[in-house]
């Protein structure tokens, strides 16, 4: 009996969080490295960054990753994804599956992302998403979404911008989140970089993100950052060994518990 009461409470929490923004499928961290970088996609080449900006990721040959965490350490609420990427010359492609929820409530995403370096300093990318929401045996809904992004690269600077849900896709008669992200990355010196990003979701205030990435050793990277709206602090690290990367990150929340992120990557 207690088990079902707990599940029902979690179900109410899951429904309440999307309602704060009038919609489901909010943008949440797709990997530990990005989480540690305050979700500033331009600070990493990781294929997971395609969830925020399809232009910024890059990979050589084949890449695979898997991410797992419990948002705000809520029992029985699990996020996981699996990604496969391939890069060849000036083009890169990602196939990703994302799952958030539990036995009662689920949000699932299938994503295809492609980018291409048009000229020396300019890349363009596009996402296609299939979104599926299910609530136990009561409801199953599908929606489609298109996102675009650009990346301009200079000597020590990167400037990137993206727009999500250009198709004005709806779910349950409510438009899915429409978000614009613009940021600048500056390489301070060698393995030390910093970035600032401005995120604007339609009808909601600006969210400001700041992050720093430092790689003191070839096999070890430190990440940290913070954001406003909501106010959150991030920190994380990545350890590399041969073809593998293992990343961990943590973020706080004003009201809820900590979130711990775990990602394993394999580059072939």
Salient structural properties:
268 residues, mainly beta, Porin, two-stranded antiparallel sheet, 2 helices, 16 strands, 9% helix
How would you explain this protein's 3D organization?
Helices cover 9% and strands 57% of the residues. The protein has helices at 2-19, 32-36, and strands at residues 61-69, 78-88, 91-101, 105-119, 122-135, 139-153, 157-163, 170-171, 174-175, 179-189, 192-201, 206-217, 220-227, 232-241, 244-251, 259-267. The strands form 2 sheets. A 14-stranded antiparallel β-barrel has the order 1-2-3-4-5-6-7-10-11-12-13-14-15-16. Strands 8-9 form a two-stranded antiparallel ribbon.
Structural class: mainly beta
Query: Order of strands across the biggest sheet?
Result: 1-2-3-4-5-6-7-10-11-12-13-14-15-16
Helicity, in percent?
under 10%
Share of residues in strands: over 45%
Write the topology of this structure:
Layout: H1 2-19, H2 32-36, E1 61-69, E2 78-88, E3 91-101, E4 105-119, E5 122-135, E6 139-153, E7 157-163, E8 170-171, E9 174-175, E10 179-189, E11 192-201, E12 206-217, E13 220-227, E14 232-241, E15 244-251, E16 259-267
Antiparallel strand pairs: 1-2, 1-16, 2-3, 3-4, 4-5, 5-6, 6-7, 7-10, 8-9, 10-11, 11-12, 12-13, 13-14, 14-15, 15-16
